[in-house]
């Protein structure tokens, strides 16, 4: 069914890049984006000046929906960013409903590292909308499963959220 969806879908972008800028070297995403463009791949890289807002822009939501492939760059504090989690949730919806393909990169972390939210963000989650937090957990579990990390974000690991 996913292949039927893909063949019928008209994509505006080949790739959507999902990342937490504060965790990356300044040039990593810029270089990746440039190399994709240089090889003829139409990639959308969000202009992320600040990740402090809870709402992601309509432009980013539309770009996710209009991308054939999403690449998530998992980094040390990726799961401590509301924006990253909102984008990942939308990506997982598109994987399920639009046949979008999902790929991932581990940036300066190992798959065995603990990538759960930490610090003040973890404390802030306790006061957050429980339904939204559950969607984030579900998206992280699905992404981890697709990345071959079965049970990485299992109920036990995320129960303290």
From TrEMBL:
- Per UniProt, residues of the TIR domain are 11-144
- Protein origin, superkingdom: Eukaryota
Q: Which UniProt keywords apply?
A: NAD
Query: Which Pfam families does this one have?
Result: TIR
Gene Ontology terms describing biological process: signal transduction
Q: What is this protein called?
A: TIR domain-containing protein
By its UniProt entry, which InterPro entries does this protein fall under? TIR_dom, Toll_tir_struct_dom_sf
